[in-house]
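A reminder from the course coordinator: this example appears on the midterm review sheet, so study it carefully.

Given structure:
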């Protein structure tokens, strides 16, 4: 009996010593903390992403199946996305540049004999939606963030921040359906707009580019307000007062002192608005028409009705590349601004 007791004591002591050594090892805590999240990201994010990346080099079969044999693998889907017909890559690049110039200039030009692929045009169209939504969100969000962080009474600041967050308490789809009701032909908004000389009362605003842009700004403008508010809250406004004491007027002091100090928040808000706006799917699907579809709708169609998974995967990785470039630009500008 005594020997059994001693044996159990020795096992317990050695086990306690082992756990004590593990607790003292910094790598043990790091592994324990990262293992659940690493498993989740690996199984539900990285693994599907790797499969989709592999699919982007395959081909679509006659019945919609994905062909991944060695003889089918290649860059065909990326060529289909970027290069029209039998054109070469430099010719495709020129077609894209010429089309962008012809689209942006206010007068008619004819620089190239051929247009870029519809997928490239759709990509730049989505980028345009993202840029416009970001600019409008900045024009609406910065004054609101400045008011909350600088001008609003201290006892009301938290309440105003909560009001900015309140829309997130409702479902994303519910808010989109609310915009549909607002833009219907017999809505209060369209009736009120009837007093304007350029708008005929009762004309529906749904299924238009305006509706898509309104939806993007309405959904994502809080992501502009909150980072800008956070930056403005950290600004030392005594610097603005010092600039005014040195002869600058209020606008000059704001432009040369306050606004540069709030640029990190503007950069963060811009990337938070641009990325989901450029890759939007639900908003153009529910609010837009045939002329206001975006790259997200094209990718969804390839995985759905069209049944061309390789082309959809290639489009998804092209979109991901655009997003990564925007994040890299944010990090670069953020580093310089900070």
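Designed residues:
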């Amino acid at each position: 009996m005594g020997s059994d007791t001693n044996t159990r004591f020795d096992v317990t002591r050695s086990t306690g010593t082992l756990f004590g050594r593990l607790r003292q090892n910094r790598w043990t805590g790091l592994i324990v903390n990262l293992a659940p999240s690493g498993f989740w990201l690996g199984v539900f994010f990285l693994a599907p992403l790797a499969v989709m990346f592999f699919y982007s080099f395959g081909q679509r079969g006659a019945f919609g199946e994905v062909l991944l044999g060695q003889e089918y693998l290649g860059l065909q889907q990326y060529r289909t996305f970027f290069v029209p017909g039998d054109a070469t890559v430099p010719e495709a690049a020129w077609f894209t540049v010429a089309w962008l110039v012809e689209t942006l200039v206010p007068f008619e030009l004819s620089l190239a004999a051929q247009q870029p692929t519809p997928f490239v045009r759709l990509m730049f169209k989505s980028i345009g939606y993202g840029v416009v939504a970001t600019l409008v969100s900045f024009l609406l969000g910065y004054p609101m963030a400045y008011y909350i962080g600088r001008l609003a009474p201290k006892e009301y600041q938290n309440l105003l921040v909560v009001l900015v967050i309140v829309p997130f308490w409702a479902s994303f789809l519910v808010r989109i359906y609310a915009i549909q009701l607002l833009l219907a032909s017999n809505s209060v908004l369209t009736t009120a707009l009837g007093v304007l000389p350029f708008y005929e009362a009762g004309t529906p605003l749904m299924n238009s580019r305006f509706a898509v842009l309104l939806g993007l700004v309405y959904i994502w403008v809080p992501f502009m307000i909150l980072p800008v508010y956070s930056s403005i809250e950290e600004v030392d406004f005594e610097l603005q007062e010092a600039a005014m004491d040195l002869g600058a007027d209020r606008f000059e002091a704001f432009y040369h002192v306050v606004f540069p100090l709030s640029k990190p928040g503007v950069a963060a808000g811009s990337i938070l608005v641009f990325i989901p706006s450029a890759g939007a799917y639900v908003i153009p699907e529910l609010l837009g028409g045939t002329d206001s579809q975006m790259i997200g709708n094209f990718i969804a169609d390839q995985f759905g009705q069209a049944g061309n998974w390789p082309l959809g995967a290639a489009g998804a990785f092209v979109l991901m590349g655009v997003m990564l470039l925007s994040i890299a630009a944010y990090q670069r500008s953020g580093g310089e601004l900070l």
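The mean pLDDT is 85. The chain is about 70% helix and 0% strand.
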